[in-house]
Amino acid sequence: MARITLRQLLDHAAERGYGVPAFNINNMEQGLAIMEAAAACDAPVIIQASRGARSYANDIMLAKMIDALEEMYPQIPLCLHLDHGNEEATCATAIRYGFTSVMMDGSLKADAKTAADYDDNVDITRRVADMAHWVGASVEGELGVLGSLEHGGGEQEDGHGVEGTVSHDQLLTDPDQAVDFVRATKVDALAIAMGTSHGAYKFTRKPDGEILAMRVVEEIHARLPNTHLVMHGSSSVPQPLQDMFNQYGGEMPQTWGVPVEEIVRGIKHGVRKVNIDTDCRLAMAAAFRKVATQSKSEFDPRKFLKPAMDALRELCRDRFEQFGTAGNAAKIKVVALPEMARRYRAGALDPQIGKMTQAA
Ligand code: G3H
Ligand code: 13P
Ligand code: ZN
User: Fold this and answer.
1) What is this structure's pTM?
2) Which CATH number do you get for residue 304?
3) Ligand 2 — pocket residues by CB below 6 A?
4) 33 in any annotated domain
């Protein structure tokens, strides 16, 4: 069994200079495809479930599915992470169902639509970190509001994201405030705002430094060299997938995502967790459309799902290779939750001190 915490996994990634994609899942086919990709290239895995995924699939189903994946792939360290937790209860119940890591997204209020005050963000994130660390689980916090530097708005297509427009300042995490936030909350990983947003429609042109502020990553990493940074909204929305989706009857206006080479640059500057959902959705949806268009009499769901899983596996494998995750699974000796809890209590995992958990 290899259920790993986010903290241990990202400490390992930091020591060896790689990044880890965090793929969102909602169903068995996604779980299988991600694990097949990981096994094929010996990569540790972060599987994350949003509140939407939890209500779609049911916590019990998700928990048993992850147990099954763990049993099928005992050689692959697997971190189960809550994506965008909105309040303490959401985080606590996730841990109860076997999540080894939770995101407390205090950048927004519990309605997941309104930007929160800094002090409230610190307060709730600190409370969740205290609670999670007692049992050894990890916590990701977020500072700054995710949204487009082109139009100042968040992406609402997933029902999560700031409503209306926010100021340019709020859309870029302040490096000095980041230092204060990490010190005050003791988060294990910090999600930052630098112009990315959720969904397919991130940029209206190939992004440059004006609209994808990679300099913010560099500035924060310079001040917090031992803090693991997280890039949300990091799908690349690859052109071939857009083209395939549209070729088979889809209607996706031309759009641009986060180029993989920019993420790789981020990994050189402390980015350790890279959130990817849209690309996975698009890869599967384009494959569905192809089958639906080319085999109009087909009605066996497996004939749709199999090519979709193939496409997702290929995408995940590519990200594992590009981010340097591949080849690291076998190098990690998983530390169980009780031992992680002991290390937190002993003060050995203070993010400011930045000690590594990994001895293997
Ligand atoms: O946070 C955004 C992820 O893409 C999750 O999306 O809430 O539709 O599952 P979801
Ligand atoms: P994308 O929509 O770019 O895949 O981002 C997903 C994400 O950040 C989930 O938290
Ligand atoms: Zn996100």
Assistant:
1) 0.96
2) 3.20.20.70
3) 24, 83-84, 198-199, 232-235, 275-279
4) yes
